[in-house]
């Protein structure tokens, strides 16, 4: 085959690497091949190699050089801003990387080209790949170099030496995939070539899968050529469908399409789609579609999933969700593997969702308030009326107060599944799996703490799982959030762990202790950092359904300063207002003054010690919560702060009467709102009888007599907070309700069958 230049017929041959490289080449430490730097003396036309390289770079359009490069190496592949080929001899591979970004100072140069004197760029490529002389290269581009109107240069495919593989459109292939437009017209052919050994057997990669190469044929070309704009696969069916599944290759897409789903992919799989090459891909057919991303089970899959999510949102998808591969699946597990093992794909698509992100359209009627008609979902609690589920929570206290022991005790009880367990001054409402990340305590210290809390070794028979990660034993602390030059980002270490967290079922509690060790950003003074952190915690809580507790310090106060109210405690939580305002719940713990502590210990018949007596309360909640102050006393054996509020209340019933009154009023109000109102003293619905049967009865009312209950009810009626209502014309029982509740409006609906209601 020949190249016609100014009437001269030039015979072109492609050079082949011998013994690992052409003469004069070298392999850099990075493993990429450096383009050979060859010095030339002045030729007979008076131009040396360096001058020619510079002149061509200045005079010859970049697209002409790129087309010549692609035609010289038909087995090369465009990957973003790089063209990759195995060698200057033309073998397939990735060893040699050539920059094809016209704006780059390294345009048409090798990956590690050092800019030294000598031949480089398209000159070197033609001399090596087509076996051209320097004078022939100059002659080829003479019209451009002389400033004349350039004639069309005939780009030809090289004559390949024997035994050098060459792929063209007539080469046998293993599979073919057609990229069509919305009208069904062919845009591009993608063919798969499986590698085989000398005996014709498939060659496998390190993961046991066939080695393969893909070649794209565009515009009727006989040799591989990528389209300038890379379309999505399966466009005709995308247009006709509402829900689309993106996968990493045509074979995976076809497997899902055969099962009745609508699947697509981007050309070249995860390897070709990058931020540099993103502008070459057309995601517009996904506009107003619901997209589900199913990545392969590897790091490349996870990275490309994030990019596909971003590009699809930019294209105007209605929503996008990212699936997390099931726990325990092998590296590179994909759709084809799922089909082969008869995996329940439908259940996987519906249940294993990482996150749903939506484009906001204010003109969409789905945003109207009428979507909230009907009964609102109930707030679920980890600890009844204290710590809610599926929200971020800050647990704040001074140093050496016992935060770690309290969260460890909570996690152990949540995982144990034992009913009537108490923590943080309330009953545990939900049981399930828990995770603790501790940055301060190694495994030996955690073992000692666990033993003090569970000296009977009941942990060996827990109903649920508790996983404890002692970071001193696994290489130290990792940040979940860090400040970068692009803003506040999650760390790679946490991203990997989070993928695993999302695979855990029935997760109820996640603890990070302490916050400062996991956040490498100034949340104490930068509101943006606080907002970024709380946003991340909210995402984790929403996606897992667990209560996410961050243990955090209070600001240090003077020795004689005393915290006595929840409001004061809230204001002492370290950090900007964005930190506390951004979480749904905050629980604070503060040490009481010595005089009060001594009186409490004396009343309880125990010895007083410093750091023994604390008060605690919910100091911030976006929903209903018990905000009563709880009184904690440190247990001498375990070191755990135990709630002794009820004991102290019984010892001071007179002074605690107001607490009892407020607790009873709140309980009566709740029962009315829930359709299970109470009477003062009659049968199973009487207050005293319900106290012994209902688990939601306030603890502070324990041991109250009928006489005490009657007295409190009378005071509440006299104060205008409660009233008695009858639902029968003949009188009948009197039901207790609030002065402005459902009963007062005639809107009360009983949820239990009972007389006269």
List the helices and strands and how they pair.
Elements: E1 2-5, E2 8-11, H1 49-59, H2 62-72, E3 77-79, E4 82-85, E5 96-99, H3 121-129, H4 134-140, H5 142-145, E6 175-180, E7 186-194, E8 212-217, H6 235-240, E9 243-246, H7 250-258, E10 263-264, H8 269-272, E11 290-293, H9 299-314, E12 319-323, H10 335-340, H11 345-351, E13 353-358, E14 381-383, E15 387-388, E16 392-397, H12 403-416, E17 422-423, E18 426-427, E19 433-438, H13 443-453, E20 466-470, E21 481-484, E22 487-489, H14 492-501, E23 507-513, H15 515-518, E24 519-520, H16 527-544, E25 547-553, H17 566-571, H18 577-582, E26 585-591, H19 594-604, E27 613-621, E28 630-634, E29 641-643, H20 645-651, H21 657-673, H22 687-693, H23 706-718, E30 722-725, E31 735-738, H24 742-745
Parallel strand pairs: 9-10, 9-11, 11-12, 16-25, 16-26, 19-20, 19-23, 21-24, 23-25
Antiparallel strand pairs: 1-2, 3-4, 4-5, 6-7, 7-8, 12-13, 14-15, 17-18, 21-22, 26-27, 27-28, 28-29, 30-31
Domain count: the total is 4
CATH C-level name of the largest domain: Alpha Beta
The helix fraction, in percent, is 25-40%
> Mean pLDDT across all residues, rounded?
81
Strand content: 15-25%
Overall 3D form: elongated
Number-wise, the strands total 31
- Structural class per helix/strand content? alpha/beta
Q: Say which CATH homologous superfamily of the largest domain is assigned.
A: P-loop containing nucleotide triphosphate hydrolases
Q: Give me the side-by-side strand order of the main sheet.
A: 20-19-23-25-16-26-27-28-29
Can you name the CATH architecture of the largest domain? 3-Layer(aba) Sandwich
- Computed over alpha carbons, the radius of gyration is 36 Å
How would a textbook summarize the main sheet?
9 strands, mixed
Uncertain runs: 1-46, 112-117, 149-165
Q: Would you tell me which CATH topology of the largest domain applies?
A: Rossmann fold
- Terminus-to-terminus distance: 99 Å
Task: Please count the helical segments.
Answer: 24
């Amino acid at each position: 085959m020949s190249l016609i230049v100014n009437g001269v017929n030039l015979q072109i041959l492609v050079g082949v690497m011998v013994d690992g490289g052409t003469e004069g080449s070298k392999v850099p430490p990075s493993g990429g091949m450096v383009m050979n730097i060859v010095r030339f003396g002045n030729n007979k036309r008076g131009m040396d190699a360096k001058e020619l390289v510079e002149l061509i770079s200045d005079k010859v359009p970049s697209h002409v050089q790129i087309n010549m490069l692609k035609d010289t190496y038909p087995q090369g592949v465009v990957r973003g801003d790089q063209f990759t080929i195995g060698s200057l001899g033309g073998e397939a591979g990735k060893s040699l990387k050539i920059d094809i970004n016209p704006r780059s100072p390294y345009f048409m140069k090798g990956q590690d080209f050092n800019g030294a004197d000598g031949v480089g760029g398209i000159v070197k490529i033609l001399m090596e790949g087509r076996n051209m002389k320097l004078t022939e290269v100059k002659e080829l581009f003479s019209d451009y170099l002389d400033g004349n109107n350039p004639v069309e240069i005939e780009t030809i495919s090289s004559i390949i030496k024997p035994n050098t593989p060459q792929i063209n459109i007539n080469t046998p292939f293993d599979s073919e995939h057609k990229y069509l437009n919305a009208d069904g017209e062919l845009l591009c052919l993608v063919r798969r070539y499986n590698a085989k050994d000398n005996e014709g057997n498939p060659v496998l990669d390190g993961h046991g899968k066939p080695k393969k190469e893909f070649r794209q044929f565009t515009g009727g070309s006989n040799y591989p050529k990528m389209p300038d704009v890379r379309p999505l696969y399966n466009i005709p069916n995308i247009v006709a469908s509402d829900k689309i599944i993106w996968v990493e290759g045509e074979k995976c897409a076809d497997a899902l399409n055969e099962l009745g789903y609508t699947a697509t992919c981007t050309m070249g799989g995860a390897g070709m789609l990058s931020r540099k090459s993103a502008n070459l891909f057309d995601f517009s057919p996904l506009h107003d579609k619901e997209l589900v991303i199913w990545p392969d089970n590897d790091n490349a899959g996870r990275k490309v999933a994030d990019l596909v999510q971003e590009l699809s949102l930019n294209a105007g998808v209605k929503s996008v969700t990212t699936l997390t591969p099931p726990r325990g699946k092998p590296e590179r597990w994909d759709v084809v593997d799922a089909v082969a093992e008869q995996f329940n794909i439908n259940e996987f698509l519906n249940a294993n969702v990482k996150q749903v992100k939506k484009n906001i359209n204010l003109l969409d009627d789905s945003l109207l308030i009428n979507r909230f008609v009907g009964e609102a979902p109930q707030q679920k609690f980890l600890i009844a009326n204290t710590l809610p589920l599926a929200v971020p929570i800050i647990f704040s206290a001074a140093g050496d107060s016992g935060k770690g022991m309290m969260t460890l005790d909570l996690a152990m009880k949540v995982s144990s599944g034992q009913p009537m367990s108490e923590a943080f001054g309330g009953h545990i409402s939900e049981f399930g799996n828990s995770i603790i990340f501790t940055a301060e305590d190694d495994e030996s210290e955690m073992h000692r703490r666990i033993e003090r809390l569970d000296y009977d070794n009941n942990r060996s028979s827990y109903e649920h799982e508790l996983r404890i990660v002692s970071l001193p034993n696994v290489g130290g602390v990792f940040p979940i959030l860090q400040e970068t030059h692009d803003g506040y980002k999650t760390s790679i270490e946490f991203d990997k762990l989070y993928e695993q967290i999302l695979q855990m079922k029935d997760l109820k509690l996640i603890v990070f202790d302490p916050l400062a060790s996991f956040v490498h950003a100034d949340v104490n003074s930068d509101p943006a950092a606080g907002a970024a952190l709380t946003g991340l915690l909210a995402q984790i809580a929403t996606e897992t359904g667990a209560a996410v507790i961050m243990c955090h310090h209070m600001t240090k106060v003077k020795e004689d300063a005393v915290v006595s109210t929840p409001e004061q405690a809230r204001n002492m939580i370290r950090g900007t207002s964005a930190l506390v305002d951004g979480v749904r719940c905050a629980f604070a713990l503060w040490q009481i003054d010595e005089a009060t502590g001594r009186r409490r210990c004396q009343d309880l018949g125990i010895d007083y010690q410093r750091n023994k007596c604390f008060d605690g309360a919910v100091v911030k909640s976006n929903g209903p919560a018990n905000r009563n102050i709880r009184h904690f006393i440190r247990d001498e054996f375990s070191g755990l702060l135990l709630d002794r509020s009820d004991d102290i209340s019984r010892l001071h019933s007179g002074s605690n009467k107001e607490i009892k009154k407020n607790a009873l009023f709140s309980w009566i109000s709740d029962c009315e709102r829930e359709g299970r109102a109470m009477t003062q003293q009659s049968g199973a619905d009487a207050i005293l009888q319900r106290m012994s049967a209902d688990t939601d009865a306030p603890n502070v009312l324990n041991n109250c007599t009928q006489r005490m209950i009657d007295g409190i009810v009378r005071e509440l009626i006299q104060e205008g907070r409660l009233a008695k209502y009858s639902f029968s014309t003949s009188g009948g029982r009197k039901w207790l309700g609030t002065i402005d509740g459902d009963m007062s409006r005639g809107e009360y609906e009983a949820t239990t069958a009972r007389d006269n209601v």
